[in-house]
Amino acid sequence: MLTSNMVFGGIVIPWELLQQSFWPILIEGIKVTIPLTLISFFFGIIIALITALVRISNIKPLRWIFSVYVSAIRGTPLLVQLFIIFYLLPELNIMIDPYPTAIIAFSLNVGAYASEIFRASILSVPKGQWEAGFTIGMTYRKTLFRVILPQALRVSVPPLSNSFIGLVKETSLASQILVTELFRKSQQIGATNLDQIVYIYILAAFIYWIICFVLSLAQHQLERRLDRYTAR
Predict the structure, then answer these.
(1) Mind listing the pLDDT tens digit of every residue in the chain (232 residues)?
(2) Cβ-contact 52, 120 below 8 angstroms
(3) Could you say which of 3.30.710.10, 1.20.140.10, 1.20.120.80, 1.10.3720.10 is the CATH number of the domain covering 18-227?
(4) How far apart are CA 181 and CA 99, in angstroms?
(5) SS3 assignment, position 145
(6) CA atoms within 13 Å, Cβ hemisphere of 43
């Protein structure tokens, strides 16, 4: 057991334990948490865009199906969705590792929430933009992809960036289905230091904050770049 401690305001802080735990936890964040976030967000955005386009279309059966999907995902906890997919796939004789299972669950979750962002962004584009496209002879599809979507995507960047940062934190739930990501690594370290486990969790929270802070800076830079192309 590590004994090198620091006393701060009457609180004994296991400084040596925190120093030795920092890099293993951070490495799991870089190796597992961030890739899990990126992959899930990538597929989630594809699902979201398809869902949004279907929900503004005139194909009623598909609109109903995708509306039920969005309602079901938004109306149930993400942890429950993880467990359902984790235990349902083996029942269907589909055997995959916990990591891909987490990607499926997070992608479906992101897809449902981000689809509402896309849908709202598309609907926020003035109707005059549609009329302008039709006036110069564009079809519905060309107007959508060349006129409407570029404007809608610019509007959707801030809320999508927030969703991405939120997903970084939500990946901690993957620890419940045995994915060894940042939080699960802290649990493993804490399990061997039960009397000091709260400090390990505080360290994990600090690392999450560092990652999210860096991503927030990147978000601001992206928004600044996009502002150059926004009419005022």
Answers:
(1) 444 655 544 555 667 778 888 898 999 888 999 999 999 999 999 999 999 999 988 889 999 999 999 999 999 999 999 999 999 888 888 888 999 999 999 999 999 999 999 999 888 888 888 888 888 888 888 888 888 888 888 888 889 999 999 999 999 999 999 898 899 999 999 888 878 888 899 999 999 999 999 999 988 888 777 666 554 4
(2) no
(3) 1.10.3720.10
(4) 10
(5) helix
(6) 14
Backbone region of residue 10 per phi and psi (left: phi > 0; alpha: psi in -120 to 50; beta: other values): left
Q: What are the sequence ranges of the domains in the chain?
A: 18-227
Cα–Cα nearest to 211, from 177, 176, 178, 167: 167
Nearest alpha-carbon partner for 181 in 32, 26, 25, 34? 32
